[in-house]
Amino acid sequence: MQILKNLSNPVLGMILLLILSLLFVQTPAPAPSVDEKSQQIMDNAIQAMGGQKYLNVLTVTGKGFYTTYHEGMSQLPARFLDYLAYPNRERTEFSGGGIRTIQTNDGDTGWMFDGAVKKISDQTPEQVENFKFIMRTTLENLLRGWWKKEGGKVTYAGRREAGLAKRNETVRLTYPDGFWIEYEFGARDFLPAKVIYKRTRKDPDSGDAVEVTEEDRMMTFVKIDGVTAPWIIDHYINGTQTSRINYEQVQYNQSFAESLFTKPADVKSIK
């Protein structure tokens, strides 16, 4: 009521409106930037992976095996079938021991199918955020420039040892919130080698939140339809291997039915 009374006075009303407009002005996101050295490394990587053919890829269908590791030891692998539509849609099906599970993400939403109990459920907010976090760290995010929408900054991080007589060139992508990812590329072949970042996880023993270093190591590059990509991706946490993705087949730019990403009405509707 007092605000409405003040607005009856033209001068006071103008002052109040100015104050309110200043309070609700949103700070614009920082302008994205990339230094010359980093841009050259990224351009070389794009060419090594297929140039415009790589950039023209809109969907990826992949088949292979996913293996988890416990204390550095591999466990039984599971078959996977993955449908990826850039920039933020993915459906992954796992099968093993006669049980099929499905994890599907579409932007800010996601659902799961647990074949062991024949149940469909929405992903939790934490699961959706984890998917978005992972997409934020991908090689495609860097090379395709999706990071620019968030006002990220790419800087050259130097050359690193990568084995006998081998070096990697490193660039760092830093977001305005302080989160960063480092990408290593071969100094000679320009192919991606590693993705490194830090994140907070719950310690399985103490339950406390701890910061860990995570790393993807890429190898066994295969060229299909002019596009070169790694067929083996090993994931490490604090230097210990936790999983391996091993592709057996990859297809690019296949058309996907919308039903792949739509949550089924019931278990019988799952295909």
Written overview of the protein:
The protein has 271 residues and is of the alpha+beta class. A hairpin with a 2-residue loop joins strand 2 (59-70) and strand 3 (73-74). The protein has 6 helices and 15 strands. The protein is 20% helix and 46% strand. The longest helix is centred in the N-terminal third of the chain and has 14 residues, at 10-23. It has helices spanning 2-7, 10-23, 36-48, 52-55, 125-137, 139-143, and strands at residues 33-34, 59-70, 73-74, 78-85, 89-96, 99-106, 109-114, 119-122, 153-161, 167-174, 180-186, 192-202, 209-224, 227-237, 240-252. It has a 15-stranded mixed sheet that branches.
Oligomeric state, counting identical vs distinct chains: single chain
What is the helix fraction of residues, given as a range?
10-25%
Number of helices: 6
Total of domains: 2
- Regions with pLDDT < 50 over 5+ consecutive residues? 1-8
| Strand composition percent | over 45%
SSE order, one letter for each helix or strand = HHEHHEEEEEEEHHEEEEEEE
What gap, in angstroms, lies between the N and C termini? 59 Å
Structural class: alpha+beta
Largest sheet: 15 strands, mixed
Choose one word for the global shape.
globular
Question: Using DSSP, what is the number of strands?
Answer: 15
- Overall residue-averaged pLDDT value: 90
Rounded to an integer in angstroms, the radius of gyration calculated over CA atoms is 23 Å
